[in-house]
Amino acid sequence: MEDKYVIPLLPGERWWGGRAADGMSMPYGMDAFEADLIETLGMNQAAPLLLSSKGRYVWSEEPFAFSFSAEDLVISNGKAKVTVAEGFENLREAFRQAASRHFPASGAYPDELLFTAPQYNLWIELLYEPTAEKVLSYAKAVLDQGMPPGVIMIDDNWHEPYGTWRFHSGRFPDPKGMVDQLHEMGFKAMLWVCPFVSPDSRTFRELSGKGYLLKDKHGEIAIRPWWNGYSAVLDGTHAGAVGWFCEQLDFLRTEYGVDGFKLDAGDIEFYQDGDQTAAPSNPHGQCEAWARIGLNYALNEYRACWKLGGQALAQRLKDKLHAWDGNGLSSLIPDALAQGLLGHPFTCPDMIGGGEYMHFQQHSDALDQELFVRSAQCAALFPMMQFSAAPWRVLDAEHLRCCVDAANLHSRLGSEILDLAKRAAEDGEPMMRHLAYSFPDMGYEHMNDQFMLGEHILVAPVLQKGAVKRSITIPPGVWKGDDDSIVQGPCTLDVDAPLRRLPWYRKLDGNSFI
């Protein structure tokens, strides 16, 4: 029988957690809201965790559903045992306590280049038609535009059929030569992979004979629909299957010099409760098992993840629209803040300008150049930033210059961002922080359009079309702006923010610099 926990809300109490993709609805506690972590994780990171501004938290090892009204938080726990802890001072202390007890920091962090330079994901630019020539051309263009080299991600279809993780000999006749050239230019090479196996391939026949593929409730090999068609799925609970998969990745590293992997999919939607697996599991367990594979590789990226807070995994936001509102630019900050509060400090926004390729393609003939620039500026002082559509191809000279400036700003602060990553690896705290996390009792709970990077940097990007001014909430302290202004907080400041400007401020405390 399903149990329900009814938790009366305290006056003025606000909550965060559940699914990163619900960041726009956070904080909870003022309007009605409900989410079911049992049914869907929102195609992004999720955890059975809720955190309160009044120093309380809810945790379970299993998924649950929850709902908020103006008076109560109701937890419908299914089979889950739910912990409700209270007595902590504020949101930050509630997070620290939850993290130390349930998802402690591992002491490790992803590859340094993910933080110190922009990333270049070739998905939007090349879609399903990557070639060695196109990859090298893109990399050379990055340098020609005065942008810093970083991780370059070769996305879907560099390979033979899904599950056969070998370079396609026609599109990539000399993989090692290509990777060597990328290294000489200062890039690291990352390849897209997934847990799917094409059912009409030699690899499928090999793996089905070894029992490495997921079986449905009838004991037949499961063939599941996903965005590229229908495929079999690796059983992440089978040690042999995981070992085989890692052998394929290790071969790519040793044979060609590939540096790391973007491990896509793994969403619970591709698994079913009745699936027959090597070890007892469920869709959430398979999602978690897929993410654990990335712990073998410092250079990794995930979009979907269940739990695993505190681990050395680079977590990207779900694909965003080429739009200002909804699941577009306006969602980047609230969703990334939610990632951090779920225990994932190593956060990456989606591709600049939007990574939802069908929507991007619909707007390719009338690309919003202003949106592209403001997206780059918004991402510039995230822990990571990621380009895809080539800005030198889609932008005029003025807008391109703004994007190059954003990329170089991230690179200029790269060593400081890396220091924050190293600290997060030890204490687990978000690198990118909600103002209510850093400045409790100031009434900042609903401040979702600006953020703190660590303890000392306040970032307030322009998120509205046509805006050349914006209002900024300055927290307590003395702050020095990117425009060299000195501001005493707390206060609200109206500033000029023309297209070329990303407003940001550094707190001056004797240990800071600008």
Please tag this protein with its features.
514 residues; six-stranded parallel β-sheet; six-stranded antiparallel β-sheet; 29% helix
Strand order of the largest sheet: 16-15-11-10-9-20
Number of strands: 26
> Could you say which overall geometry the principal axes of the C-alpha atoms support?
globular
Structural category is alpha/beta
**What helical percentage do the residues reach?**
25-40%
Mean pLDDT: 96
Cα gyration radius (Å): 23 Å
Number of helices: 15
Could you tell me how far the N terminus lies from the C terminus, measured between alpha carbons in angstroms? 58 Å
Beta strand %: 15-25%
* Main sheet overview: 6 strands, parallel
Low-confidence stretches: none
